[in-house]
Amino acid sequence: MIHKYKLFNKNIVLDIYSGSVHIVSDSVFDMLELYSFDKNKIPEGITEKYSKETVEASISEIEELIENGILYSDDVYKPFRDKKTKNPPVKALCLHMAHDCDLRCRYCFAGTGAFHGERSLMPLDVAKKAIDFVIENSQSRKNIEIDFFGGEPVLNFEVVKETLEYANSEGKKHGKNFRYTITTNGLAITNEQIEYVNKHMSNIVLSCDGRKETNDKNRKTVDGQGTYDKIIDKFIKIANARDQFNYYIRGTFTKDNLDFKDDVLHLADLGFKQISVEPVALPENSPLAIKKEHLEAIFNDYEELAREIIKREVENKDTFNFFHFMIDLENGPCALKRISGCGAGCEYLAITPSGDIFPCHQFADDPDFKLGNVLSGDYEKKDSFRERDIYTIKGCDTCFAKFYCSGGCAANSLKFENDLYKPYEIGCLMQKKRVECAIGIQAVLADYD
User: Fold this and answer.
1) Mean pLDDT value of segment 278-296
2) How many domains are contained in the chain?
C-alpha cells in the first residue's frame, strides 16, 4: 500500500507499512500509477511519454524497492494487535482540578469550564484517591503521567501542589515514577506558581490563540475583557525559563481565523519555539464551526505555513516546532501506540472533582460514559474503547495516514459521527493534509543536509 502526491516541487511516495518515504522521478511517479508490474503490459501512455530506456530504468528502480521491502511492503503491524492485553494498565490520568474557569471562551467544549454542571474544585481527598487508583491500576508499569487540567487548574493550585507531593511520596513506596503536566490560561498564575511549575512539572501547556485580535475575540474574561495583554508576558517568561523546551503554547483556530498560519507565525516571532494551534471541533450549527467548505482555505494555510517553516530552517532563522508537522520518520511511536493512539477509556482516564471516572476529559459531561468513581472504588472497563484501533475503525484500512493519527479522537467520533468506530470526517481530512505537509517539509530539507 502506497500514497503518492506532489508537493513543494517534489514527487513524494510514502510506503505505508514500512514508513519509507521516496522522492522519485516523474517517470517512476507516473509508472507507480499505471504500471501493472508486468513488463509485457506497460501502458501505451507511458511509452509515448518516456523513452524505452527511461521506462526500463523506472521498472528496475520500482522492482528493487519492492524487493528491498520498502515499497508495497506487507503489513508488519497487524500481528502486534494480538499482543494487546485485555486488561491494559492505566498509564495516565487527567485530573480535573477545577470545573471552573476565570475565562469565558466562545468555543469552550467544557461549557466555560463547568463541564455543563455545577462549578466546583477537586478536594484533596479526591485527588489522593485518584493517585491511589492509578497506582493500583497501573499494574507493573513504572512511569505514570498526571495532567492537571480544568477549567483552570490554577484556581485550585494548593491542591495541585499537595497532590503532586502526595503522588511523589506514594510513588516512591510503590516503585512508580510520576511525570506531570499542567494546562493554564495564564490569567491568574503568579510568579511563585510559575516558579513551582517550572521546578516540579515536566511540561506546561499555555493557552493562547495567537495574534491579539484573534485571541481576544474568543478568549475573554468573565466580564468580557480580552486576555492577550494579561498573559503574553507571563507566557514568554515561562517559555524562556524552560529554555524553550518542555512546553507548548497552544491555540485554537475557528472558521473566523482560517488564516491561522499568521497566528502561528506571530507566536514564533515572539520567540516561542514549541507551538500547537489546533482546529476547533464544534457542531455544524455553531457560528465558529469548521465545515467542509472551509477546508480548501485551511489546506492552503497549512501549505503556506510549511513553506515558511522550510524557509526559516534553510535560513537558520527563527526556527520553531509546529506540533502537527512533527513526524519522526526514523523512530516514532511504538507499534501498539501507532495502532491504538491515546488509549482513551483504558490506558488514559479522566477524573472529575467528584471522583467520577471518564474515558477522557472530553467525555466528562456525559453520564453515559461514566466508568466509576475513585471514592467508591467502582471501575468498569469498557471493551469498546480497548478494541478501538486502526483495524476496527471504519475506513482506516485504506487510509495512508493511519499510523500517524491512529484513528483519530474517540470523543470526536462519537460527537460528530455518533459511532466510536467511525472517524470524524473533517478531522481526518485535515490530518491527511498535515501529514502530507510534514513529510513534504522533510523531503525539501533533506536537500540541505
Assistant:
1) 96
2) 3
